[in-house]
Design goal:
The chain is an alpha+beta fold. It has one domain (about 5-80): Orthogonal Bundle (Arc Repressor Mutant, subunit A), CATH 1.10.10. Helix content is about 60%, strand content about 10%. The protein has four helices and three strands. It has a three-stranded antiparallel β-sheet. The longest helix has 16 residues, at about 5-20.
């Protein structure tokens, strides 16, 4: 079973893009990611806020985000479903 919720889709996309970049702490623009999973800016802000509170992602500057160790673990768990 693949990701179901928007936040799960975002976590998987962030993980896969980080893998491609060769560094799991690569920073990505959250609004670009949000557009790729079909979210508007307000939606991506809300999801990022929750994911940051849960320590799955960290913020870098105003718009960039990257995975934490917990975020990597979550993405792997989601992909293993």
């Amino acid at each position: 079973m693949k990701a179901v919720t928007q936040d799960e889709k975002l976590m998987i996309m962030l993980y896969e893009l980080s893998l491609k970049a060769g560094d799991l702490e690569t920073k990505f623009n959250r609004y670009d990611l949000g557009q790729k999973v079909g979210l508007h800016d307000r939606g991506i802000n809300a999801i990022c806020k929750l994911l940051m509170q849960a320590n799955f992602i960290k913020k870098s500057g105003e718009t960039d985000i990257y995975l934490t160790k917990n975020g990597v673990d979550l993405a792997l768990e989601l992909l293993a479903r």
